[in-house]
Amino acid sequence: MIATDVLELPMDQQGPLRILALADHWQGANCYAFVRAFRRAGHSVSSCSEADTIPRSWQLTALRVLRRLITPVLVSEYNREVIAAADRLQPDLLFVFKGPYLTADTLRSVKAKGAIAINFFPDTSITADTRYIPRALPLYDWVFTTKSFGLSDMERLVGVRNASFLPHAFDPEVHAPVKLDRADIDRYVSDVSFIGSWSPKKEHLLLHLSKAMPGVKLRVWGSRWEKASSRMRTIAEHRTVVGAEYAKCIRASRISLGLLVEGRPGASSGDLITARTFEIPASGGFMLHERNDEVSRYFLEDRECAMFSDADELVDKVRHYLANDDKRHSIAELGRLRCLESGYSVDARMEQVLAKYRELAASGMRIARSRTDRPVPTPARTLDHT
């Protein structure tokens, strides 16, 4: 008989992990950035996207009614696909980006196969989207939230305590200075731009700027701007820009705005930082961001970005920086340098996720079931989070 010795390596020296990621697949998606970061680090990654099964963008009323009727069937099909993927891969780590349609039963099933389950939650509210999120969230072994106020919100609403704050990030494959050709400039050039979805607060700020500075070329990209007023609808482009086109749009704008969405039901605050907070400077853009203490932890005001507190100051700052090209260019350069030197990339965030995985695996600390019997909050249909 031949004896075989198995060498037990420390967690930080073990080989590539098998990771099942529940994330979108399109270039420029924040969740797909994590998938590519895991792969760059040498891990085996299989991914499932609910968008392949559950439609998101049906706009006609009849189609929206049909979607509501068939969504439970599609959710069941999607969860069967997740379980099948887990059966094939036998993942060490289940990495879920938000997980709007992952059921608690499916999460239990995948964990029962030995996977450690980690959720990366990017929204302000855990109750304003689908009913599946608040039911499943307490079952994860760890939850990362991109909202500093999200920690107390999750504990208050559904009893989640195994959680920590992990900010948004930029994707080095997407958010970098790009060269623009004449067609790019014609397509995207602006004095001031905003890339993101509609909300009443954002519309108020943009309309105030447009009325105060009618000669400024203001362009707005993103979704849901059909909900805006007639004047705002004439400013909006009514299309999204993603991936390389997103970086081009930032590069072609003299000032890129960092506007924040107001609070949603279930959230104790509106946004304080977003993915744009890091993506704009990483792309080489000059960022004019809403002022708050949190964003000030990441960028120095008037050195690495500019900030404003209200609509009047927004106008003042736009007027000032459009007239000061050298200062604007210097701030843009230093903002990008801060992103690179301070670890704001998705690769750095990914390493923090893996560090938590290794900690959980080494300690054997797992969440077997929900630790709360409190009623699950009912989701409300509200504003987009971006």
The total tally of domains equals: 2
Briefly note the structural class of the backbone. Answer: alpha/beta
Specify Rg, calculated over alpha carbons: 22 Å
* Uncertain ranges: 1-13, 369-373, 380-385
DSSP, total strands: 11
What does this molecule look like?
The chain has helices spanning 30-40, 61-89, 104-112, 132-136, 150-158, 182-188, 200-212, 230-235, 244-251, 275-282, 293-296, 311-322, 325-341, 346-363, and strands at 18-22, 44-48, 93-97, 116-121, 142-145, 163-165, 190-195, 218-221, 253-258, 287-290, 306-308. The chain has 2 domains: 18-169 and 345-362, 3-Layer(aba) Sandwich (Rossmann fold), CATH 3.40.50; 182-342, Glycogen Phosphorylase B (Rossmann fold). It has 14 helices and 11 strands. It is globular. With 386 residues, the chain is an alpha/beta fold. β10, α11 and β11 form a beta-alpha-beta unit. It has a 6-stranded parallel β-sheet, sandwiched between helices. The protein has a 5-stranded parallel β-sheet with strand order 8-7-9-10-11, with helices on both faces.
